[in-house]
Design brief:
With about 290 residues, the protein is α+β, with helices and mostly antiparallel strands. It is built from ten helices and nine strands. The radius of gyration is 30 Å and the shape is elongated. This is HTH araC/xylS-type domain-containing protein. GO terms for molecular function: DNA-binding transcription factor activity; sequence-specific DNA binding.
């Protein structure tokens, strides 16, 4: 059974419904009902400025700028009101997709990546991009929406066309949010690298261990650390070990072998060599004055 025909509906099937709303009456700006079906994903593209949305079920109100969009999952049928201020035009496009269609499309049982993306979608992690601000439509998104609105063929050709465009829109959304995450990662990555080193420099520390712990490529780790701290990881680890060794060496109750092990050296000879290179004297000589 097909979806009930809505005003402005340009496509409807068992799984997908597309509504293109445009209000040309400038004398008044009536509120328009926005409906989300049960167990459905809703792509809402705001195509006019200063659009307000108020959800009937919780009374939450949002204000959108022109060319912003959201991808929202609704577990139950819900309604919201859309309207503009100052007698401005109200123009938006809503693409509603049934959960089962997305589930079958992603096949999350066969792919961890697909499962994670579907989980993010159902948790509504694709609503805000930066600081509670909805993402902006890209040029490519604009082109796709224009193609959807203007497509004239019906039947199977339209079905295939619409589904292909929706898949492309989803890809663009995932790419946009992935780029956002990647752009935030570097500013925090160097801190995570340094913290891991600071916590583990006293043991046999390998770059491979660090890579596995952080889930980041070894070359990226080296580059990120050098860029922010102007030192290689090897030199930084050596510096931390020597500073610790110098503090411990004055305590004659601790054997030099114990100090070497406590500073991450498996062999006393390697420790003594590094210590003399750093301070110009052997550990024994510094201890005995």
């Amino acid at each position: 059974m097909k979806n009930k025909i809505q005003e402005g509906q340009i496509y409807s099937s068992e799984e997908i419904s597309i509504v293109f709303h445009t209000n040309t009456n400038r004398e008044k700006s009536p509120k328009t009902n926005f409906v989300e079906g049960k167990s459905s994903f809703n792509l809402l593209y705001l195509l006019s400025p200063n659009i307000n949305l108020e959800a009937d079920d919780c009374g939450t109100k949002f204000s959108f700028k022109k060319n912003e969009y959201i991808l929202h999952y609704s577990s139950e049928e819900s309604k919201a009101k859309l309207w503009t201020e100052n007698q401005e035009l109200l123009k938006y496009l809503q693409i509603q997709i049934k959960y089962q269609y997305i589930f079958n499309l992603f096949n999350p049982q066969k792919s961890k990546e697909s499962s994670e993306i579907l989980e993010q979608m159902t948790k509504n992690n694709f609503i805000f991009l930066h600081k509670q601000t909805p993402p902006l439509m890209t040029v490519e998104m604009h082109i796709i929406l224009k193609e959807i609105i203007e497509y004239s063929k019906k039947g199977m050709m339209q079905k295939l066309f619409i589904e292909a465009k929706i898949i492309k829109l989803l890809i663009l959304i995932f790419e946009q949010f992935t780029e956002k995450n990647d752009s935030e990662t570097p500013s925090k990555l160097h801190i995570r690298i340094k913290k891991y080193i600071d916590d583990n420099f006293h043991r046999s520390l390998k770059i491979n261990d660090l890579s596995q712990e952080l889930g980041v490529n070894e070359n990226k780790i080296r580059k990120e650390f050098k860029e922010h701290y102007h030192s290689t990881i090897v030199d930084y680890v050596s510096e931390l070990r020597m500073l610790k060794a110098k503090k411990l060496i004055v305590d004659k109750n601790i054997m030099i072998k114990e100090i070497a092990i406590d500073c991450g050296y498996d062999y006393v000879q390697n420790f003594s060599r590094a210590f003399k290179k750093k301070f110009g004297v052997s550990p024994e000589k510094l201890r005995n004055g």
